[in-house]
Amino acid sequence: MFLIVHTAAATVISQQTGNPMLVFLMSFFSHFVLDFIPHGDEKLTDKTQPKNVQFRKLFWVATIDSFLIFLFSIYYLLMFAPTHYGLFFVGLGAAILPDLISGLSFVLNGKFNKDYPWLAKFQNIHKTIHTFFERKLNFLIPLKYGLIWQAFFFLMFLSLLK
Ligand SMILES: [Zn+2]
Fold it and tell me: 59: closest CA among 98, 103, 94?
């Protein structure tokens, strides 16, 4: 899913406990739960296209996504004024970490597997979870419906904030 949805989920989690380690672990775990649900951005880039064309698309998606996180962070910190706002950043970091590693693997390409075997193994698990329904059931929802679906999740998490 898009990072803004992962961020909203982590924000809800950061309000449930004062334990930063727990916020980290649960936010990290929540990433995979959300990625497991079919959500339309599994095929964001066309792998047959040249790497630089794929990169440009991913770059813009990541830029818009990051900007949304920026806006959301300001909104949350100002409107909800959480007492332990550090927990928000712990959750945010943990929830987007798997996709940061994905980004790194994309940028480093072949070097990634060679230089970071542990991260490569992790990235494989991430990818396996992300494409589960597509691989097992050939089920993939189009991006435009995926966006509506993800907006639904985002609003649901927003409504859970206290
Ligand atoms: Zn992911």
Answer: 103
Distance between Cα 131 and ligand 1 center (Å): 10
Residue in the structure block whose two tokens are 């770059």: 59
Residue type, 63: T
52-91 pLDDT per residue, tens? 898 899 899 999 999 999 999 999 999 999 988 999 999 9
Query: What percent helix, strand, coil does the chain show, rounded to 5?
Result: 80, 0, 20
CA 98 to ligand 1 centroid distance, Å: 6
- Determine the distance separating the centroid of ligand 1 and the alpha carbon of 156, expressed in angstroms: 19
Give the predicted TM-score (pTM) of the model. Answer: 0.92
Domain ranges of the chain: 3-160
Counts for the chain of helices (H) and strands (E), in that order: 8, 0
Helical segments of 37-116, H only:
51-79, 85-108, 110-115
Relative orientation angle of helices 85-108 and 3-14, to the nearest 10 degrees: 150
